Amino acid sequence: MTTHRIRVGIDVGGTFTDAVAVDATTLELLGQVKVPTSHHHEDGVAHGIVDALNRLLEETGRAAEDVAFLAHGTTQATNALLEGDVATVGLIGIGGGPAAALTRRLASLGKLQLTPGKTLPLVYAHVGDPDDTASVRRAAEGLAQEGAQVLVATEPFSVDRPEGEQAVVEAARSTGLPLTAAHEITSLYGLHKRTRTAVVNAAILPRMLATADLVDASITKAGVSSPLMVMRCDGGVMSLDEMRSRPLLTVLSGPAAGVAGALMQERISEGVFLETGGTSTDISVVRRGKVAVQHATILGKKSYLNALDVRTVGVGGGSMVRVDGGKVTGVGPRSAHIAGLPYACYASADELRDATLTTVRPMADDPADYAVIDAAGGRFALTMTCAANALGRVPEGDFARSDQDVAKAALAPLAEVLGVDVATAATRLLDAGTAQVGAVVDTMISDYRLDKDTAPLVGGGGGAASVTPHLAAVSGMEGRIARHSEVISPIGVALALVREQIERIIPGAGQEQILAVRAEAEAAVIAQGAAADEVEVEITVDPQTSTVRAVATGATELRTQDRAHRADEAERLRTAAASLKADPSRVTVLAGTPAHTVYGTEVRRTLRTTRHPVRIVDADGVIRLHVPDARVETTRVADAPEVLAELVRETTSYGDGGVRAPAVRLLIGSRIADLSGVLDPQPLLALARSELTSRAADEPVVAVLEVRT
Known about the structure:
Layout: E1 6-12, E2 16-23, E3 29-36, H1 45-60, E4 67-74, H2 76-83, E5 89-94, H3 98-104, E6 113-115, E7 118-119, E8 122-127, H4 133-145, E9 150-154, H5 163-172, E10 179-181, H6 182-185, H7 191-221, E11 228-231, E12 237-239, H8 240-245, H9 253-265, E13 271-276, E14 281-287, E15 290-291, E16 293-298, E17 301-308, E18 311-313, E19 319-324, E20 327-335, H10 336-339, E21 356-360, E22 370-375, E23 378-381, H11 384-390, H12 404-418, H13 422-447, E24 457-460, H14 468-475, E25 479-481, H15 488-495, E26 498-505, H16 511-527, E27 536-542, E28 547-554, H17 569-580, E29 588-592, E30 596-600, E31 603-604, E32 610-611, E33 614-618, E34 623-627, E35 631-636, H18 640-651, E36 653-655, E37 658-660, E38 663-668, E39 671-674, H19 681-692, E40 700-706
Parallel strand pairs: 1-4, 4-11, 5-8, 5-9, 9-10, 13-24, 24-25
Antiparallel strand pairs: 1-2, 2-3, 6-7, 11-12, 13-14, 14-15, 14-18, 16-17, 19-20, 21-22, 22-23, 26-28, 27-28, 29-30, 30-33, 31-32, 33-34, 35-40, 36-37, 38-39, 38-40
Helix pairs in contact: 1-7, 4-5, 9-15, 11-12, 11-13, 12-13, 13-14, 16-19, 18-19
């Protein structure tokens, strides 16, 4: 009998489409299926999505009406750009006088290279007066006759004055083509970069619209009434309507699904996520409970697309070892999959009889130093997975597990050539592969200022066991493989939060303007299905670029229900003490709300200085926030404005760099309101007051303040 509704996550990969069902209340994995991605079906990838959904419902014994949440991630937009399979863009530049020269230069966007020898198909037309409807229509119709399949309107300073672009879009509707205005894609200054981002978005728009319509119709036909969500490249999900207008947000969303799974399922607040497949490892960071994002590079150019900061290394579970002069000289980038060879560790003992080592050139352009074994059963590749199994680093029940004795037998010919025992040969193979991954991990730890002593390595993907355990062992870092690592990406899709980011360039932004950007981001996620009481908005004000950024995240209604697991006081204390690297007897409870407990200790640095590191632990026993040195105060909503004003006054620093208010986080109800991105005391206090709106006067508020130096 069905006791709970389910959340469904579907990850559309290049080869397979994976789907999972997660209990909407306990978040327990209930079932998983894998079907071939239906690129060549008349309905495209939509057919595979529905096929996966139907099989998943059958396997779990659920009905379509039990689906409370359905989301999918897709590589379609990424593949379209990689393969050059895009629509011809008709770009309408707007402006007279000097502005005309600026916009006419945008015709050069047609030189953007998609693939070797293929550039972005773009045709350009210019209008001087956007309110001259007849001229605009002639320009739009001319572009359509030249082959344009989608239109983009762009004008200098449209961020501040969007009326011109809006007028052109309205007048061009007579063409019947999909339309977009550059300011709708991003509201940041920089005509060329803003237009380039809008043009790339438009190039994939028709294809993505067709897929969205097919998927929507197919899901509805299947009887699912919950709205369909789509994975974004920054680790959240958006509504299908949002995807229809901004399909570019799905580019690079593949790696984002995996780290979202690590963030939500593994509940890591600070650490490095390694998603390892057969050929490569994607490395990303979770810092202070959030994925690390940056403006993405697309078609070789920086864009205004905020995407997961993911760095890829060509080492995966299937990467082959390279040998020369009796030494291991490297691992990869060629993998057994591309070479068309089976992994030696998955052969039978009989197939490995009479095995001898030889080196080959897997592909015509490869060096001839990739090691393989020729045996009774044929030719086999020696891979990272083979070495991990030989050393017993692949846990019981793991997707990549093989018989350890068979893996040792597979490595024996390599060990003989190297003149060492099998364990040493396997170690050298893994050392060579993980060294490449480790170098990138070290760089990202430095870039994001993570504490290497407390930030764990979390492995996901089918090849996780071939990289993460060994890297953890040689680096001394804590390491673990995520539960259900082989389907961590669709789990991430199923558990992802609704997310929206609003950016505005506002020189000298005052508190009213900052609050308006915050309200816009909050309203956007609520409109897409997030529960209003659970929305969290992080505000950042960059005084150097005058950029006000609001990132809103929120759970849908069924994600806000009570979780099955709740950690007791002793478990939460042990977790905090381990993170603080302190004996539990030296860790104290500084404050708390029903949802969070604040733990702290003292670390004496010199005779005169003492740090007060803090950890905020939620009811599940998960550390939600690390602060290296903080002041913690408890008050209540009615008194909070006055108390916070005094605290901010006492902890604001002044210097050559200007005024720097403390980094403030407020614990209110079930939320952590992160106000650390605001440096100016007055907007900071205004945002704090907005977080207290509609709260009961006697409700507790915990302020955690980190003084900036």
